Amino acid sequence: MSEPGERAERIGLVVPSSNTTAEREFRAHLPDSVTVHGARMALESVTVDELDAMSDDAARAAELLGHADIDAVAYACTTGSLLHGPGFDAELEERLAEAAGVPAVATARSVVRALEALDAERITVVTPYTADLDAKEQDFLEAAGFEVASIDGRGLEANTAIGVLTPDDAFQQVREHVDPAALDAVFVSCTNYRSLAAVDDLESKLGVPVITSNGATLWDLCGAADIAVDGPGTLFNHDR
């Protein structure tokens, strides 16, 4: 706990307006001395058109978070930060860092950094998305140098429908669609998919590292802000 008069560490999250998961998953694994502050970009359905339009609001949202004297900021949306392929994630990080005046990370780039920290090459991906977004995600990950052995999506567009999924749903989707043989890691995609609480059980069952969108973003953001965090799974045993 911070002492009276002592400034708490602060992180900012730029999230889709319909995201109900990112802030609470971050809060569950951060020390009490760190506060979480959110800013929202309009999004109801997880489609190419809405994700594209949403990114136009990112810099303004980051600028407003900068008014709260945050220590670092994240663009906490997976497909929204990979939509335009390799390089778009890095561009988002640059735009947010300039707008907020602090280090910035974008979820798609955080996932790449996390997989690289784990020395992962061959991965399986599970998502709540439709097939067109799964294809874009696979293309992005393969362009980043990973072999995607398989990808499974739930076919959901409404972000509120994704938000009501539970860690048990994530656990079952992974168990039903992932063969851990010859895999280096499993990636559960989407910052609105409640899956971080399933990581420890999945790693125990599968015997390989499991990362999630929020887990990778939390690990990366806290590394950028030099904040100690004790999250679930193998990833948090590695430095950024």
UniProtKB/TrEMBL annotation:
Entry-linked Pfam families: Amdase
Fetch the InterPro entries from UniProt.
Iso_Racemase_Enz_sf, MaiA/AMDase
Keywords associated with the record: Isomerase
Top-rank taxon:
Archaea
Q: Which GO molecular-function terms appear in the entry?
A: isomerase activity
Q: Which Gene3D superfamilies match?
A: 3.40.50.12500
According to UniProt, the name of this protein is Maleate isomerase
Organism per entry: Natrinema hispanicum
